[in-house]
Amino acid sequence: MHNVFRNARKCTSFSRNHQNVQNAVCFPASSSAINRKFSSQGTEPEYDVVIVGGGIVGMAAAREMLMRHPNLKFAVLEKENRLAAHQSGHNSGVIHGGIYYKPGSLKAKLCVEGLHLSYKYFDEKGIPYKKCGKLIVAVAKEELPRLEDLYNRGIKNGVPDIQMVDGAKIKEIEPYCQGLKAVWSPHTGIVDWGLVTQYYGEDFKSLGGEIHLNFEVKDFKVAQESKVKAVAANKKGIQVTASNGQSVRCRYVLTCGGLQSDRLAELSGCSREPRIVPFRGEYLLLNPAKSHLVKGNIYPVGHLILVSHSSVSTLPQE
Ligand SMILES: Cc1cc2nc3c(=O)[nH]c(=O)nc-3n(C[C@H](O)[C@H](O)[C@H](O)COP(=O)(O)OP(=O)(O)OC[C@H]3O[C@@H](n4cnc5c(N)ncnc54)[C@H](O)[C@@H]3O)c2cc1C
Predict the structure, then answer these.
(1) Which of 35, 143, 145, 154 falls between 20 and 30 A from 122, CA-CA?
(2) Total domain count for the chain?
């Protein structure tokens, strides 16, 4: 079983340089202890709580739970050889302001709160970001009622400093953009969420959490020999097994599988509903010679989006 860990190298220092961070295979400080347990003893590492999925949701949940319950033992199980290998490392990088969500909904509340907490965290950690703002531009009269609706939602949701601006102000903010009116959200920004996930991982490990990479969960079961005794005694009676045969034990499991979340839910004995419905989108990259044409995030009232993504990981904070 120790072969599983063969290619992993320990992250002794955490570089702020994004390139280094992406290339590093981050591993828990106690990885050697885990190796020994797997190989020589043949015993399974035991935890109070296991989180399946090392995307931003799994890492954020793991970090927060460990901060709230420092006496419990936590582990994250991730099937890839690094954190944030899927959506969390491949998205538009927008720090959303909370304009679109239904007023009063939890999404609206958490998005606005999350914006403030995110910037605070980035500043504390020195994570590069760009608060470049966002314009939602109406180019035809028939789009104005929908734009007005978005503005009112933004006001109700408490989106900071949101404004309705006219054509002249649009030009001032984005000189190459034309429109009748626009919603302007100056605090919307961009960040490398994959990098943020790596930082969450470092926080988690520094608090004593363990991360098992290359651990593709294939099965959850109440361990046969402990069905009666361990579960009744509230011991680590759940066995989580990987596709390579490795396993860990725990008392509680939280699955955060992103696009695999319905499959993991089913595997863990829950309903597969709601199901993940994949759909395809496309990104078009602006020729670098033309990058001055877009300064921030420009959204239509409809569906196409222009996002200024000039390598945010190397951008100075603004
Ligand atoms: C194209 C696109 C653009 C987006 N743009 C933005 C944006 O600009 N701003 C924004 O805030 N959000 C954006 N999002 C949404 C955001 O990226 C997601 O909400 C977020 O990344 C979800 O994180 P996650 O941890 O749930 O999923 P993921 O990042 O997919 O993580 C799930 C993890 O679970 C692991 N896993 C799955 N099955 C198993 C298993 N059996 N065993 C072990 N591990 C397993 C996977 O390997 C993966 O690492 C965008 C999403 C997409 C797709």
Answers:
(1) 154
(2) 2
